[in-house]
Specification:
Length: 202
């Protein structure tokens, strides 16, 4: 009789929510994703090796432009010389001279067209090792501080508004400087390495 009354009560009132909650399987709570931000422009500008790379690039860029200018000047001189002696040349000699000048002119035009591309490729080649070091430093700092994701403020064209507490730019700069100092100490022929080798034992 008592069991019958309980069944009737359940049918009329319904099962309480707390009973349903206890019976329902519990879904494990996923840990929150920790996100950090950094500014790769600030990091790159702070790298100790940046100055040497930019100096080398400026020197190579100047050399490339000097080569193109020299080729253009040489072509102009050759044209002037042909004009001076053209009247004394045979028809075959004049045609050969013009063909030679045209070939040189095409070469100079090709050099001018490719100059910017070649310069850009060289810049990317020089910056490549630095960018790889930045990526490695970002990964080390992110893992060390327990972040699952690091967003770069300098890429994507999206303004990132984030609390300074999750900005790891300074930590990345410090990591890069530490790594740079370690490389200097271990590089044969460097001043710190020479001092270590010359230091008396004990």
């Amino acid at each position: 009789m008592r069991a019958t009354l309980l069944c009737l009560a359940v049918l009329v009132v319904g099962i309480p929510d707390w009973v349903i909650a206890q019976q329902a399987p519990r879904t494990p709570r996923m840990p929150a994703t920790r996100i950090a931000v950094y500014d790769s422009r600030v990091v790159f500008d702070s790298m100790p090796e940046r100055g040497a790379v930019e100096s080398e690039f400026a020197l190579e860029q100047a050399k490339a432009r000097t080569m193109v200018t020299a080729a253009s000047d040489s072509l102009r001189l050759a044209l002037d010389e042909l004009v001076k002696v053209e009247e004394r040349l045979t028809l075959r000699e004049r045609e050969a001279g013009k063909l030679n000048l045209r070939a040189r002119e095409l070469l100079v035009e090709q050099m001018l067209e490719n100059l910017d591309g070649v310069i850009q490729q060289r810049l990317e080649a020089l910056r490549g090792p630095l960018l790889r070091r930045i990526r490695e430093a970002v990964r080390l700092v992110r893992v060390r501080q327990g972040y699952q994701l690091a967003l770069d403020r300098a890429t994507g064209g999206v303004e990132i508004d984030a609390d300074d507490a999750i900005d790891i730019t300074s930590a990345i700069v410090s990591e890069l400087r530490r790594a740079s100092a370690d490389r200097s100490l271990s590089t044969p022929g460097s001043a710190p390495e020479r001092a270590r080798l010359l230091r008396p034992n004990g």
